[in-house]
């Protein structure tokens, strides 16, 4: 079964939140973009924290079976 965009967005949000990402904003692009349903913006206090956030988001997406590129 394929992961839905909403499930993937929720997993990515939770992963970022678990790694203490700051000012997490989710933009709903369903009616706007052909290449993305959601866009998540957040930041961390250091390069190390930002890398940890990105790694955790990627890990959770892969656990759901999402195909990660780039």
Structure explained in plain terms:
This protein has 70 residues and is α+β, with helices and mostly antiparallel strands. The chain is 44% helix and 19% strand. It is built from two helices and two strands. A two-stranded antiparallel sheet has the order 1-2. α1 (5-18) runs antiparallel to α2. The longest helix is centred in the C-terminal third of the chain and has 17 residues, at 47-63. The chain is globular and about 30 Å long.
What attributes characterize this protein structure?
70 residues, Beta Polymerase, domain 2, two-stranded antiparallel ribbon, 2 helices, 44% helix, globular
Relative helix content: 40-55%
Q: What would you give as the CATH superfamily?
A: Beta Polymerase, domain 2
**Rg estimate, integer Å:** 12 Å
- In the CATH scheme, the class would be Alpha Beta
Number of strands: 2
H and E string: HEEH
Q: Which structural class should the secondary elements be placed in?
A: alpha+beta
CATH architecture designation: 2-Layer Sandwich
Widest sheet: strand ordering: 1-2
How many distinct helices? 2
Kindly state the mean pLDDT as a whole number? 94
Beta-strand proportion = 15-25%
Instruction: Give the domain tally.
Output: 1
Apparent shape: globular
Q: Could you list the spans in which at least 5 consecutive residues all have pLDDT below 50?
A: none
| Biggest β-sheet description | 2 strands, antiparallel
State the CATH topology.
Beta Polymerase, domain 2
| Termini Cα gap | 23 Å
